[in-house]
Amino acid sequence: MARRFLTLSVTIALVLCGGLSAAADLPKPIRVILVGDSTMASGSGYGDALCARFVAEAKCINLARGGRSTSTFRQEQRWAEVETLLRDGDAFSATYVLIQFGHNDQPGKGERSTDLVTGFGPNMSRYASETKALGGVPVLVSPLARRTFKGPYLKDTLGPWAEATRVAAAREKAAFLDLHADSIAALQAMGQKEADTLAVAPPEQEPVSSNPNGVEVVGAPKRAFDYTHVGAKGAEFFARMVQAELTAAIPSIKPYFKP
Hints:
By secondary structure, the protein is α/β, with parallel strands linked by helices. It has a single domain (about 30-255), classed as SGNH hydrolase (Rossmann fold), CATH 3.40.50.1110. The chain has helices spanning about 1-25, 45-50, 70-75, 80-85, 115-135, 160-170, 180-195, 230-250, and strands at about 30-35, 60, 95-100, 135-140, 150, 155, 175. Helix 5 (about 115-135) packs parallel to helix 6.
């Protein structure tokens, strides 16, 4: 009896040790924080759809907010919330901060606008450097293209801001996702009619741009349909695009996405 008890005890100990070893082999979770404007925010952008593509071992937090620029996101203390999260990152093997602005930094946005050279570029660089200083991994994302066509051709209204984002990423040695180039290529390939299906709601009538340059007019009446924000179909479409760019730029993050 004593021998059987000893054998059983050893067996249980081995099982427990094996279980502990297996648990220890599990990858430490990661965290992904999304920072940006309405094209990334809940209800109007792709951010929530991107978060939904991660497995449970990746905590994804969408802090993007509509109408924000590189300056107002900081002025409203929203960046301070990101810094607080970064200071409390011991539970994660890495915290990736995806940062995407541009739409509201353009001219015509009132106090939200920033100068492309002296404001927007340095602001993006500062976000990246502060992320690194707090132990995070900055990922700069060029702005999502507007779905505004002139005849059969998509109008590029955000090219300079996309290039400034690329320059800032290179300066800070940060990962860069060229969502702008990817979205332009995809939208041009599908054409206006199919691009319209990515909107929050279908057009009530033949869509007419409120501004010849494709830039939203401050104070103009809002419609459910527009050329900037995305509904469920658009969110899923661009979330997959960002996932492809992110896994190419940072291969180690690939296992944290669902198959």
